[in-house]
Write a structure and sequence with these properties.
2 copies of one chain form a homodimer.
Chain A lengths: L1 H8 L13 H6 L9 H22 L4 E7 L3 H17 L2 E7 L5 H13 L5 E4 L11 H7 L11 H6 L11 H13 L7 E5 L6 H9 L14 E5 L5 H10 L2 E4 L17 E4 L3 E2 L3 H6 L3 E2 L4 H4 L5 E2 L6 H21 L1
Helix pairs in contact in A: 1-3, 3-13, 8-13
Chain lengths: 335, 335
């Protein structure tokens, strides 16, 4: 029943690996050069669904994920609703704790501690960003979450783990999502030129580190060993264009619409759009497509070999990776 | 007396900031474009000496640093002797524990635990590399060191700290040394193109992160905000040349002689050599200059604005930063 529900949940989309049989065929599929996240997410969620079923049968308890939502930020509410819908499709018990905008730091810490101590809770999400009066203490709140319930991989201990030589247990979902997209493309990164735009602690920086590190396993050839350039707001725009125009792969994680334009992309490059921001153009409002990525999608898809759309690209896979983390952590705590 | 000893210890060298009064003067000083580490180290060690004196007066106890040396690696012995000589000049109580090559992992852990529990010990150095039969467990041994005695900043907790938004308490000495060299040059990095060659956990990667992060303080303008490219053994040599030739600053931390050649350096660039390896050429043996860096120094100094020598460059400052870490940690433990 779950399987059917998930298939119904995702529209039928074509996985890009089907186009990777021969180079000739790749060239022929240049019109179909959109790398959809939904088939990738579907595969992960199907696996999660089976794992969830096994977990429930074995432990007579549904894996429980709790999201803490502070204030009334519309985007945050939307993200949490999205996570809830997907988690419940998989079979996860999902709860939301709503805190008013003016919650005190100590009250927020108390909520986190209660969830840490509640043995029935397997994963905790602190939905970011926090309201302005709490934003400076974000790291402190995150580090209050037990690392074995940290499905977002944001705590110091988990956030550090992607840099270890052994495979990390919990990877930041968005980093995992980019990894899954690259595995889907199936082209070794070793020796390739990659530009990561954005240097944030939870997205740009861990992505750059993952992609540049040395190869540990045969599979990791596809997601590491690249020459990585970290660009950001202080990179002059001419330099950004110069680096991008040379890159085999561009990954943008900034949140600025149309930052990556046609003229910045080398023919045949792979462009992965991790950015998300609200668009207020008339077209966006009329078509109700409010969320846009960093990439000028309609133009860039004319030149790139693969480009991910927003929505329907990395975002969909990110939520699937979050659920995957929950199941990993839930099983780990039972062992 | 200590002051005199340190002045005697270092040869008289000219600090590069003296040449930074005007651009005209900089151009005029193109023959003097060697960025010596010794004056920088001398300044740090003079401060350390005063701090050490104050510490001894206040606590009636000399800060104690213990190095664990496993096996008979000649380079390791030389490094430890060098650290000992400088530490003792400053007034630090320095001890070496020699373990035989075939020490068991549990014996090594026991040694570290004894030093952790010995209240008179303020800092522990585990001299790397370990012998082959222990090398795979290096991280495990390092993480056995109490983070408040970890003068090398190698433990997971300290190694992570350079990524925090607040200033880290203990920075990896070589990272700190490069920072000091850049502060000495005094040119803001923001928006500049930097190439870091090498992606090692304790050198290349933390350097790349430090230089690319957002600016926290006015002073950090000089050591962060750059567009950083991480190159490494999988970067094809033509690409390496391409990135380097564009770079305002090249930092090489590989350990391969003459990796950075004249034709890879842009006129007026800054070249910081963190690499160190043994040279077996006849010239090196005859002149007893066995240790060389990654940079083809004699050639590169003709084109670079500043280039650091090996020996006498970053290495000298690294040891000074190690001693500075010891004093920080010793004071912290007394508070």
């Amino acid at each position: 029943m779950f399987c059917l529900a998930i298939k119904h949940f995702f529209k039928l989309t074509i996985s890009p690996t089907r186009f990777l049989v021969t180079d000739t065929f790749q060239t022929a599929s240049i019109k179909n050069n959109i790398l959809y996240g939904k088939p990738v997410a579907e595969r992960i969620l199907n696996r999660c669904q089976n794992e969830c079923k096994e977990y429930i049968e074995k432990y007579n308890h549904r894996p429980k994920l709790v999201a803490i939502l502070v204030g009334g930020n519309e985007s945050s509410k939307l993200y949490v609703r999205n996570k809830q819908r997907i988690a419940e499709h998989v079979g996860v018990d999902f709860h939301v704790i709503n805190h008013l905008m003016h919650v005190t730091p100590s009250n927020l810490i108390d909520t986190i501690q209660d969830l840490n101590n509640d043995d029935s809770v397997d994963g905790i999400i602190l939905q970011l960003p926090l309201p302005l009066h709490l934003i400076d203490k974000t790291e402190q709140f995150i580090d209050a979450i037990r690392s074995d319930k940290d499905v977002d991989g944001h705590t110091t201990l988990n956030n550090y783990s992607y840099r270890q030589s052994s495979s990390p247990f919990v990877t930041i979902p968005v980093v995992d999502a980019v990894k899954e997209m690259l595995l889907e493309i199936g082209e070794p990164l070793q020796g390739k030129d990659v530009v990561v735009i954005g240097r944030s602690k939870y997205v740009g920086t861990p992505l750059a580190l993952m992609l540049s590190q040395s190869n540990i396993t045969a599979k990791s050839d596809l997601i590491s060993g690249a020459t990585v350039t970290i660009c950001h707001r202080h990179t002059p725009s001419t330099n950004l264009t110069w680096y991008c125009k040379n890159a085999d792969i561009i990954i943008s994680a900034v949140g600025r619409p149309k930052l990556v334009t046609y003229r910045m992309v080398k023919e045949g490059a792979i462009v992965i759009d991790v950015g998300i921001s609200k668009s207020w153009t008339d077209k966006a409002v009329v078509s109700n497509k409010r969320f846009v990525g960093d990439v000028d999608f309609d133009e860039v898809k004319r030149i790139a070999r693969w480009v991910t759309p927003v929505p329907g690209g990395v975002g969909a896979v990110t939520v699937a990776c979050l659920i995957s983390n929950l199941l990993k952590l839930a099983r780990q705590r039972k062992q």
